[in-house]
Amino acid sequence: MQRHVLASALLGTMAIAGCSTVSQDEARPAPGAEAAAWPMPPSPPPQEAAEAKATAGRSAQASLHRRTQAASAPIALADVAAMGAYASSPALVQIPSPQPADTEKYAVREDNPVHRTSEQPVSTFSIDVDTGSYANVRRMLQEGTRPPVDAVRAEEMINYFRYGHAGPDSLDVPFRVTTELAPAPWNGKRQLLMIGIKGYDVPKATLPPANLVLLIDTSGSMNTPDKLPLLKQSMKQLVNQLRPQDHVSIVVYAGSAGLVLAPTSGDRGGEILAALERLEAGGSTNGGDGIRLAYAMAKQGYVQGGVNRVILATDGDFNVGTVNQGALETLVADQRKAGIALTTLGFGRGNYNDALAEQLADVGDGNHAYIDSLSEARKVLVQEMGSTLLTIARDVKIQVEFNPALVAEYRLVGYENRVLRNEDFANDKVDAGDIGAGHEVTALYEITPVGSGAEQLPVLRYGAASGPAGARPSGTRAEEVAHLRLRYKRPGEDGSRLITTPIARSSLRTTPSDTLRFAATVAAYADALRGGTRIGGWSWDEILRNARGVQDGNPQRAEFVGLVETAQALVDADRREAVVAD
């Protein structure tokens, strides 16, 4: 009986789809009506009907396969009807749902190598305050998907969390540098050097006036709940923080760019929210024109001594106009020199261009975050609004020189795309990362002490590792594990300033603090997601045990514990499948 009703309904659907004079709404039965009451075509002779059914089914299967492979063309109603008629035979066929192709883009990166101190004692890199990798990986794990290796960036995982680094007393020196040296939790023969930077925390009420341009992607690819709808709700949280002295413009781009809202003061929140609410998705993605118009509006409303920033919210799927990433980077870099920064907010899945969003923020003197929920939007646009908007130190570079008499090897954890040439440290024309008000930056070095027996590089045949005797430090310097140098520019200045901090051997702790242990656990988690080749001695069970031991009642750390559990389960499942396949 059920099979008869299904066949009748599907045949009726075929009749409706084939009729050009009757709309689907006109042909649809009233709610609750029986499928058998739908209009039915005349029945052909039994043998002809059977042959027609089989032919239609095979044709529909072939059509459905072609459409599924294309991943972009919709399945016609007639295909579904014919497939259903074929499926009503005893050999029931399940209709697969076509899934869009996954075209997410991530910049390829290789883990930093281990360096022999006698050969390369100096390490130089730009700071990074981005957190997009952590939230994006969280999204994938919560969906039950193991993230691609290049989506995992250790420094963004580490810097997603606050570690309570001590801050400066005033803006005279806009941040403070602290260090901790302790045995590595995963290998007691090695050590971890943690470098912490904390920016001066400017109260929201005293932030200078802001000239913000919201550059919003309204292309067709944004037409899913986790994209434009979430984007609009996220921006509403930012709008609710605005003050009368702040001004906001809204620029959108799809096939072409357009101005939705001219500069509007923050006390006219109703108008700003109404403009956001009217946005709809559709069309192709001309991001290049959108960026140009956004910068034009930022220049028009430029506030001398204030916050001048474009906030680009997109899935990054630029497909018309200026689509070359290099050209876009040049455009953004030119505007950076004019005092207009760029923050990027990533949204969505499936076609998310992480590589573009991260790099544009990097060259635009801004930061990159990924918004996967309203709570993440609140973290980025409300709780951390000051650090997101107000830059207190520009072009911040770190350089560490290790003492070859005490340090045999070292490795920088993360920051692979922030590594600089040593000569770039004192070159004020070389761009580097910026620190916002209240920002924290954390970096880790894994160090192998001389004579520890934990060296990872092979012994050199001709003993060059020892170096010339006259090159070894003496006196006080002989007791220094490393010398930390940091350069930065104050906003509006072209010349950099230098901060130096020696790291004495006597500062070595017997056990790492909970702060260092948690940072190390996050680093190990990132490494395990990338394949587990760099953090020796810790399994997933040990990462999880340490995560639980230092969560300290913090909601974000408690969430992190859950992500470690989820990641471990996914990795274990992959291993079991690999064993079965073998």
From TrEMBL:
PANTHER family reported in the protein's UniProt record: CALCIUM-ACTIVATED CHLORIDE CHANNEL REGULATOR, ZINC FINGER (C3HC4-TYPE RING FINGER) FAMILY PROTEIN
InterPro entries in the record: CLCR (IPR051266), Uncharacterised_YfbK_N (IPR022156), VWF_A (IPR002035), vWFA_dom_sf (IPR036465), YfbK_C (IPR021908)
Record region (Disordered): 25-67
Pfam family, one: vWF_A
Name recorded for this polypeptide: von Willebrand factor type A domain-containing protein
Compositional bias (Low complexity): 29-38
Record domain VWFA: where: 211-389
PROSITE patterns membership: PROKAR_LIPOPROTEIN, VWFA
Lineage, opening ranks: Bacteria, Pseudomonadati, Pseudomonadota, Gammaproteobacteria, Lysobacterales
